[in-house]
Amino acid sequence: MPVAPSILKAIPVVRKAMTSPDTKDRHEIGLYRALRKLFLYSDEIAANLESIEALLALAPEIEGFRGKGSQMAANEFARSVSSLTFRVKERLPPSEIAPDQFIKEAEIPSSAKDVIDCLETLAAHAFSRTKGPPVRSRHAGELRAIAWQSLKRITEILRRPEHLAHSLKVAADNRASIEERTAAVGFLSEYWGSEDPDESTTNLLFELEKNPPDRSLLVTVLQVQIDLGLGDEFGALFAVEDWDDDEEE
User: Fold this and answer.
1) Does residue 67 surpass a pLDDT of 90?
2) What CA–CA distance (Å, rounded) separates 148 from 224?
3) Is the pLDDT confidence value at 99 over 50?
4) Per-residue DSSP letters for 71-91?
């Protein structure tokens, strides 16, 4: 299926906004508007693999842009791409086993293969954005956290062991930013769903609870423990109170 004309028209507008010689303030506003206009066509982008690939081809340019508004552009683009996962998932047929839930990969009929191809492409894009050397800047950490959010939304349908292995690695890495470590931990609850987590996941969650580097990470760890049946709300409340007491001393 060909890329929708509206998308083919909107993408060059984004490129032009990044290279516009306009004044600084107007440059940033123009780029933001161009990105917002591009994602007004989210339904059309999510409709086929070719449109998604055309959009993702823009990612390296957005990420490599260093002009006025570069961080805003990278963040806006990443969040908007992440939101596409919802639009693509809405194209799946309902689950016969659990009609109120999204269908699982094993249930998906061959007629919906194009939807799986779209999700695989979005997952590969997100997964690649979670990799690389540890980052310490808040902006870079936020971008990786957004990528983990994308994987979290996709993993209830496409469950990949390599995503789990990497999330455990990132969550345990003291060199990684708090934002991406927290997001990697949050990914675990969706990955395991109603299943019992494996030993590696369980051990990591309890280790992070014992030695949390940050309150937000501790809260996420405790919530994931509750989600996976490894803890309860009262225990979580006491753990957070202990953290707060230690910080006040």
Assistant:
1) no
2) 15
3) no
4) HHHHHHHHHHHHHHHHHHHTT
Region for 212 from its dihedrals, namely left if φ exceeds 0, alpha if ψ lies in -120 to 50, beta otherwise: beta
CA 6, CA 40: separation in Å to the nearest integer?
Answer: 10
Would you say residue 179 has pLDDT above 60? yes
**Closest by CA position to 151, among listed 178, 114, 190, 113:** 190
* CA-to-CA separations, 4 to 10, 11, 77, 110, 119, in angstroms, rounded: 10, 11, 19, 24, 19
> If you search the block for the tokens 């049946």, which residue do you land on?
229
Residue 193 has φ and ψ, to the nearest 5°, of 55, -125
- Higher pLDDT, residue 222 or 138: 222
User: What are 62-71's contacts with CB under 8 Å, separation 24+?
Assistant: 62/14, 62/18, 65/18, 67/18, 67/27, 68/24, 68/25, 68/27, 68/28, 69/27, 69/28, 69/31, 69/32, 71/139
Q: Which residue has the tokens 């050397």?
A: 133
